[in-house]
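Need a sequence for this fold. Nothing fancy.
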């Protein structure tokens, strides 16, 4: 909420790097449905893989580790669980499954925050309950030294801070203080600084990140594990979080390092999604279908370069071959000559955005 308080005042400008991330993500969101339209059945493997990776990685970041040989049974099966770590991984899977199934229908509210924590933590005494004692974030060194990395909000103020944070998220989206993706990252930063639970704050923050992505129409987390990407970039996660939390209590912090970090994670996820969606083993002709759908999706004229951007994993020769076939069938027409010539589809479709 301290980040939102900054944003509720007029912001003169945002970093150039942030603007670049936003532009790239906007384009990725525009291509998102195009990829998922092609052959939904081929994405089943990506969804299953992402579910497993997310449940394991998000817990592993916090030191919760399970036997690799039992991972698939824990996440996808119904077998009896062996220990508390397996229960937490299964609980996180259950929370993920809820978000993937209901997505936009789950409101971002204080109740949702508590429910996700309860679902993730399972049968433990403080599941779904705010911490009852003050607790700072402590960093321990191999030589035994410790230091306070961040002083969290007082326990007695936790509920008030979460309610205010949820309210400011809604106000920010409604009043358009900043771009929605900046608001998403700001919420994540403020949530971690409030640190509302005795245990599980990082994991709940990642579940909320996924939920908010669904609310904003960025559904890449269904196919690519955001948690796994965060784990792979864990050092940068902790570094930017510390940078952006310094001075948070006084509202004098710099939120942009952490905001850019989360935007980087989303951009990396979309790039991987488009690469992997194109390389998943699929029936003959899938790339042809992708190009044909892309052609129909253009509302007006387009060029060969436009098609290459829309179909990044399809070769130029393949795109040209599909265009020639569509032209021969009377489904597309070329309005010029040479590689820079414009084309127009005679079968325009409209892709739903969001």
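Here you go.
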């Amino acid at each position: 909420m301290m980040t939102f308080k900054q944003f509720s005042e007029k912001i003169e400008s945002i970093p150039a790097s942030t603007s670049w991330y936003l532009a790239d993500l906007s384009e990725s969101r525009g291509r998102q449905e195009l990829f998922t339209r092609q052959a939904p059945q081929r994405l089943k493997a990506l969804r299953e893989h992402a579910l497993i990776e997310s449940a394991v990685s998000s817990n592993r970041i916090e030191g919760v580790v399970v036997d690799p040989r039992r991972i698939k049974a824990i996440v996808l099966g119904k077998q009896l669980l062996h220990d508390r770590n397996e229960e937490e991984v299964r609980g996180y899977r259950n929370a993920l499954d809820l978000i993937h199934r209901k997505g936009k229908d789950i409101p971002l509210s204080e109740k949702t925050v508590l429910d996700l924590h309860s679902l993730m933590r399972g049968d433990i005494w403080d599941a779904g309950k705010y911490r009852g004692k003050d607790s700072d974030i402590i960093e321990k060194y191999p030589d035994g030294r410790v230091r306070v990395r961040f002083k969290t909000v007082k326990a007695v103020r936790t509920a008030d801070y979460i309610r205010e944070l949820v309210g400011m998220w809604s106000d920010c989206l409604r009043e358009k203080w900043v771009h929605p993706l900046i608001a998403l990252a700001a919420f994540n930063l403020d949530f971690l600084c409030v640190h509302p639970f005795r245990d599980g704050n990082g994991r709940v923050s990642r579940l909320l990140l996924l939920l908010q992505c669904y609310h904003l129409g960025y559904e890449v987390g269904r196919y690519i594990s955001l948690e796994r990407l965060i784990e792979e970039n864990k050092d940068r996660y902790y570094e930017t979080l510390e940078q952006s939390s310094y001075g948070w209590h006084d509202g004098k912090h710099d939120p942009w390092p952490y905001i850019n970090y989360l935007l980087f994670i989303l951009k990396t996820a979309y790039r991987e999604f488009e690469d992997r969606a194109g390389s998943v083993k699929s029936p003959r002709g899938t790339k042809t279908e992708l190009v044909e759908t892309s052609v129909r999706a253009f509302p007006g004229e387009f060029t060969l370069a436009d098609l290459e951007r829309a179909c990044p994993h399809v070769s130029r020769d393949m795109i040209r071959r599909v265009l020639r076939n569509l032209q021969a069938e009377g489904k597309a027409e070329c309005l010029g000559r040479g590689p820079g010539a414009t084309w127009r589809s005679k079968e325009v479709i409209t892709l739903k955005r969001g």
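For context: The chain has 15 helices and five strands.
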